[in-house]
Write a structure and sequence with these properties.
Blueprint lengths: L1 E3 L16 H8 L3 H8 L7 H14 L15 E7 L11 H15 L2 E7 L6 H5 L5 E7 L6 H9 L4 E4 L9 E5 L1 H14 L5 E4 L6 H16 L9 E2 L11 H9 L6 E4 L2 H13 L9 E3 L16 E3 L2 H17 L8 E4 L2 E3 L5
Parallel strand pairs: 1-3, 2-3, 2-4, 4-5, 5-6, 6-12, 7-8, 7-9, 9-10
Antiparallel strand pairs: 11-13
Helix pairs in contact: 1-2, 1-3, 4-11, 7-8, 9-10
Length: 351
């Protein structure tokens, strides 16, 4: 069952920072794993080490968030997303990711509660709403899921994982497709087909997934000895609904620069590009080829069908929940794991 919860989040000062397991480990001069062994009453610690950890916990006033992570009917997994114009569940990309999450969570005995964070919000009140039965947290996508939000989650010692996002220099589990390689593949394919003036419609820089796709585009051109032409790199102009890519393509065409192909950082962007090119009486792919990214269901039914990069969306959701389950149920602290998923080229008639 997928529950829908929308929390407005108030700003909460950080003056009274919660003592964490990492604070205890640092003060006691032991590893986080050693503190976990102590808290779970597991063997493997010397008597002196066990005593020192206990004294440190008392000194710092550390209170473990939970003592029993066994699944039960009352517990659930939180799914945190930024506030979007459309619900994440109905998004053509994230909808499939969430389906994978919901399927795996149900198999493991958990419900999922969808939570939205306001653009100017912070996190502590969100977690305080359900202190006992919130078993873990999935943070899906970028934008509002930024460094500050992720840092606050980690301070709560709640088992958590990033999906379709990466925060440099923060130790947290993550599941992310190999977007650089996927973009490189599709642009390299265009180059091998003889295209030389390949434009790129970029996305907002707050999304690491789109930034990495642009990097793959650049890598393919540079490796082939082709210039990165500033007039062929188009920043995002639209909010994404309903015709993301439409205004950007119009802007590219108005510059009058030679273009024989357009790389769109998402299929949704490519849909707007196809519309703009048709209105300009340009034939696809005879005049300009178009490629997208994501392989959403609609991409095979455009006119012409869209060449794109397949992202294992449902698998991404399932892998994330399975890993989170391990974090929730494993008594010993586990080192963060970065899961990088393969992407693959899907060639259709738009090229």
């Amino acid at each position: 069952m997928l529950q829908w919860i929308n929390y407005g989040i108030e700003r909460v000062g950080m003056a009274r920072r919660k003592i964490t397991i990492k604070d205890v480990a640092l003060e006691a001069d032991v590893s986080v794993a050693s503190v976990s062994l102590y808290l779970n009453n597991k063997p493997g610690l010397a008597d002196e080490t066990r005593q020192r950890i206990g004294e440190t916990i008392t000194k710092l006033g550390y209170v473990p968030r939970r003592t029993n992570a066994t699944p039960n009917e009352a517990s659930f997994i939180g799914l945190l997303v930024e506030k979007m114009m459309l619900s994440a569940f109905f998004d053509m990309f994230y909808g499939e990711v969430i389906q994978g999450m919901e399927y795996r969570a149900r198999k493991l005995g958990y419900n999922i509660a969808l939570m939205q964070i306001e653009p100017d919000g912070e996190l502590p009140r969100l977690l305080a709403e359900h202190p006992g039965n919130l078993a873990g947290l999935v943070m899906l996508g970028g934008g509002g899921i930024n460094r500050e939000v992720v840092s606050q989650v980690l301070q709560e010692e709640l088992p958590a994982i990033l999906v379709d996002n990466a925060i440099p220099d923060i130790e947290i589990d993550a599941v992310m497709p190999d977007y650089v390689s996927g973009a490189y593949q599709v642009v390299r394919y265009l180059i091998e087909q003889g295209y030389r003036h390949i434009a790129c419609i970029r996305g907002p820089g707050k999304y690491q997934s789109l930034v990495q796709r642009f990097r793959g585009y650049c890598c393919a051109l540079i490796e082939a000895g082709l210039p990165l032409e500033p007039d062929l790199i188009q920043p995002s102009l639209s909010a994404g609904t309903p015709n993301k890519g439409y205004r950007e393509t119009k802007a590219l065409l108005e510059r009058g620069q030679p273009i024989d192909a357009i790389f769109c950082v998402s299929d949704r962007t490519a849909f707007g590009t196809l519309q703009a090119l048709k209105e300009a009486n340009l034939r696809i792919p005879d005049d300009i080829a178009v490629v997208g990214f994501d392989n959403v269901a609609q991409s095979g039914h455009t006119v012409p069908p869209l060449t794109t990069v397949d992202v294992p969306k449902q698998a991404m959701g399932e892998i994330a929940i399975q890993r989170l389950y391990s974090l929730m149920t494993e008594p010993i602290a586990m080192p963060p794991v970065q899961n990088l998923l393969y992407t693959s080229l899907v060639v259709r008639d738009s090229t």
